[in-house]
Write a structure and sequence with these properties.
By secondary structure, the chain is mainly beta. The chain is built from two helices and 14 strands; from the N terminus they run αβββββββββαβββββ. The strands form two sheets. Strands 1, 3, 4, 6, 10, 11, 12 and 14 form an eight-stranded antiparallel β-sheet that branches. It is globular and about 35 Å long. 32% of the residues are buried.
Length: 200
C-alpha cells in the first residue's frame, strides 16, 4: 500500500510538472515593482536594481522575509537566483513560516556549514533529504533556475532543469504565503529575477 501511494504521488508530480510547462504562470516579480509582495516596514533589505530583486544584509544582520500578499495551496514557483557576496543562506518558504512548513534551501546551511541548495528544511528536523547532483548543477557565479512544486504535503524541486529532491512531510500546513528569505546573522547578498507562480 505504501509503495502504491508513493507511485501515485510520483505520477501526480510528473503530470503537474508537465502541466506547468504549458499552463500560464503568473508573473510575481516583473523587474519593476513589488506590488504583489508585503514589503517590510522600514525596509532596508529589499531593493530593485537593474530589473533584479536584491536581498542585502543590514549592518545588524537582522535578516528579513519577503512574503507574497496572496496565499496558496497547491502551486508551483519558479525563479532565477544568483549568489552575491558573503555566506549565502537563503530559501523559499512554502506556505508560511509555520514550523510544519518546509523551506527549500538556497545556499549554505548555517547548521551543516555546506551548500544545501534544493534541499527541504523543516524546523526542529533539519534536512530530511538532501538534493542530489546539486554540486554539478549549481552555477556559483551566474544565474540558476529553481522550480518547486507543492502538492498536498509533497514537495519536489528542480535545479536548472533537473529534479534534485522530493519530500513528503505529513502534517505540513496546506495553505499560506510564499516567502523569500534573507537569513539573519549573515553578511550576504543574493539576486532574484523572473519569479513566476502558478496555482495547480
Amino acid at each position: 500500500m505504501k509503495n502504491l501511494f508513493t507511485l501515485l504521488i510520483c505520477i501526480l508530480v510528473s503530470v503537474s510538472y508537465a502541466q506547468t510547462n504549458d499552463q500560464k504562470m503568473t508573473v510575481a516579480f516583473n523587474g519593476d515593482n513589488l506590488t504583489q509582495w508585503q514589503v517590510p516596514d522600514d525596509n532596508i533589505w529589499w531593493s530593485i536594481e537593474g530589473e533584479s530583486l536584491w536581498a542585502k544584509s543590514d549592518e545588524a544582520k537582522i535578516g528579513s522575509i519577503l512574503w507574497t500578499k496572496k496565499t496558496y495551496t497547491d502551486f508551483v514557483i519558479q525563479l532565477d537566483f544568483k549568489f552575491g557576496e558573503g555566506t549565502i543562506d537563503s530559501g523559499i518558504f512554502m506556505r508560511g513560516d509555520d514550523p510544519t512548513s518546509p523551506q527549500i534551501q538556497i545556499g549554505e546551511s548555517g547548521s551543516l556549514k555546506r551548500d544545501m541548495t534544493g534541499s527541504p528544511y523543516v524546523m526542529k528536523m533539519g534536512y530530511p533529504v538532501e538534493g542530489e547532483g546539486v554540486k554539478e548543477l549549481l552555477k556559483l557565479e551566474s544565474w540558476n533556475t529553481i522550480k518547486t512544486i507543492a502538492i498536498g504535503t509533497t514537495y519536489t524541486v528542480w535545479l536548472n532543469g533537473k529534479k534534485v529532491s522530493t519530500y513528503t512531510h505529513e502534517g505540513a500546513k496546506l495553505m499560506g504565503p510564499i516567502g523569500l528569505q534573507l537569513h539573519p546573522g549573515r553578511d550576504m547578498s543574493i539576486q532574484f529575477r523572473k519569479i513566476l507562480i502558478g496555482e495547480l
